[in-house]
DNA sequence: AAAGCGAGCAACCGCTTCTAC
DNA sequence: CGTAGAAGCGGTTGCTCGCTT
């Protein structure tokens, strides 16, 4: 099968994202959602491939991302899940709200793997059969999810959902960093400048314009069907040069962009 | 103070899977 | 059913920063 290159090698930026690029991507996805990752950078005014935009949004800019040090509960959950699932980082991340697969993967390789080197795990659903349908997180994996949720390791007395458990039975974090509670009751590290800033930003917006969570343009676009967005304003209908809400204009009507510029990305 | 080194993390790459036609 | 395009995933790379010498 012919595979289209993920990146047009001519003129597309690579490497670390700049604060300006972050602002553009945040503003665009918050406003219009991720309707098409490949087309999105064109309309958002970004010289990036869609894949890069998606990764940046999913792993860094998305709201409610929990960053910083892992709690003991989180680490135990990762270890348990890794024993049962193997390197299925997205499936593991699904049990740790606020954590991304990339972050969990990094944490495993940098910290947990060394700590548990002495007892190598034998994943039940390891890499030996990559085509095994239960290995991937898909929209049709209800059977697997049922098994997963009923798995004794996962459905154990230790709740996999750190959100609630962190509050009801606070565990000492693996570091001495201070934590704060976000609007969705997640615990975040004080080092988490981006998330903390996002929280401040969201609160600022809420204070200015009422209930943030009832404002469709600003709710987490990942949980909003693109069908709800596109009929209102479908950027794909416009050519890049005539699309009416590029870059900073996207959020200016709400004073949102000015607040974004105050972030220390 | 400067160089070397290693850990941590952000981002890239290539592959698989999903979905629309 | 086959094909093509898009999305998602996991492995890997390479940069940054802090620590040590």
UniProtKB/TrEMBL annotation:
Residues 9-61, 62-116 form the HTH myb-type domain. GO terms for cellular component: nucleus. PROSITE patterns: HTH_MYB (PS51294), MYB_LIKE (PS50090). Residues 112-186 are annotated as: Disordered. Its main location: nucleus. Residues 125-148 have a biased composition (Basic and acidic residues). It comes from the Eukaryota. Pfam families: Myb_DNA-binding. PANTHER family: MYB FAMILY TRANSCRIPTION FACTOR, MYB-RELATED TRANSCRIPTION FACTOR. This is Transcription factor MYB4-like. It comes from Herrania umbratica.
